[in-house]
Amino acid sequence: MDSRVERTAGGVVVEPRMNAVVLDRFGGVDELSSRRIPLPEVRDDDVLIRVEFAGVGSWDRVEREGDYDGAFGVASTFPYVLGWDAAGTVAAVGRNVTRFDVGERVYAAAMPVPRGGFYAEYGVVEAEFVARVPDRLPTEQAGAMAWDALTALSGLELLGLRPDETLMVFGASGGIGHMAVQLARHSGIRVLAVASGDDGVALARRLGADHAVDGRKDDVLAAAFEFAPGGFDAALVTVGGEVVERSLRAVKKSGRIAWPNGVLPVPVTPPSATVSHYDGDRGRTATDRLNAIIEASSFEVHVARTFPLERVGDAHRTLDDHYVGKLALKVG
Fold first, then answer.
1. Which residue among 40, 108, 142, 215 is least crowded, i.e. fewest CB within 10 A of its CB?
2. Residue 259 bridge partners (DSSP)
3. Radius of gyration of the chain, Cα coordinates, nearest whole angstrom
4. Closest CA to 276 of 296, 251, 301
5. Distance between CA atoms of 67 and 77, rounded to whole angstroms?
6. What's the CATH code, domain 148-278?
7. Partners of 327 in beta bridges
């Protein structure tokens, strides 16, 4: 199937186009520009999504500056479209796709290379990485959810904690962290949330953390030993730094630490507990598990601010400010 070929009544072949935000070269915020570009091709195993909301993540800034150039074994080509998360409706499917119907609400986790990301009216993704939006979840939240929620879920599954075991979540008011708090509590795990700012502490508490502290001003190590005098069973690290490195002393030597790839800086002195670096699983089995939890719980994605697509520059500038939860773009 080729979504990029249409014929007019006069038989003239035209190429359907869409609005998108693109980069013609890597660099600062000013390199982001709006343009009409061709729709992506829909191959046999693909789903074409009409994007309603797209997530804006801290990694978008890193990618915009060129730090991911060639990192995934694929050469960068321009115009380059950012955007790893999105939700919207199915616009078309490839001939091998039977799980989805046109018009269904879906979300997806994609990689902008080599076929383009979600800062556009349409995005194409292999069906394996597309999932239906749970009925109770607003499309706006689903659009900013996929990679962070799946990274949180993968980390928790890697740790393999049982109910009533203890977990310290670093970056608990950020994208991955605030979702991890909810997923852990759904499993009966006792959570100490290390958040950022009074608003971050309040968010972590509202989402179910047993206790929350401000990593910017509180003595996290003291709070950790007060919460778990015998040491923590595990930690999930979504932000690095000196406070994190010091506070990981509270994890038992027999404990486990899950550390998503890309979280920096890594510790100067390795913790005594075993550290596992990992990537989030974005496949169908993972999204099925995530959706089951969402349907059975009060899980939410806290969207701090949503920007119209034409204000994508403001969204990227906000990445450098303090906020809790996620940022999103309204595309459709």
1. 40
2. 277
3. 21
4. 251
5. 14
6. 3.40.50.720
7. 56, 305
Cα–Cα dist 318/140, whole Å = 18
Residue 10: pLDDT over 80 = no
Q: Report yes or no: 181 and 193 within 8 Å, Cβ to Cβ.
A: yes
**pLDDT per residue as tens digits for the range 273-311:** 999 999 999 999 999 999 999 999 999 999 999 999 999
Tell me the per-residue pLDDT of 96-133, one tens digit each, with 9 for 90 and over. 999 999 999 999 999 999 999 999 999 999 999 999 99
Residue linked to tokens 């993540």: 57
According to CATH, what is the number of the domain 6-145+301-330?
3.90.180.10
Distance between CA atoms of residues 318 and 148, nearest Å = 18
C-alpha–C-alpha distance, residues 149 and 301, integer Å: 9
- Specify the pTM: 0.94
In order, the DSSP letters of 83-141 are: -SEEEEEEEEE-TT--S--TT-EEEEE--STTT--SSBSEEEEEGGGEEEPPTTS-HHH
Distance between CA atoms of 153 and 160, rounded to whole angstroms?
A: 11
Close Cβ partners of 239 (under 8 Å, ≥ 6 residues apart): 170, 171, 174, 177, 263
Which residue carries 């404990």 as its tokens?
A: 255
Domains of the chain, by residue range, sit at 6-145+301-330, 148-278
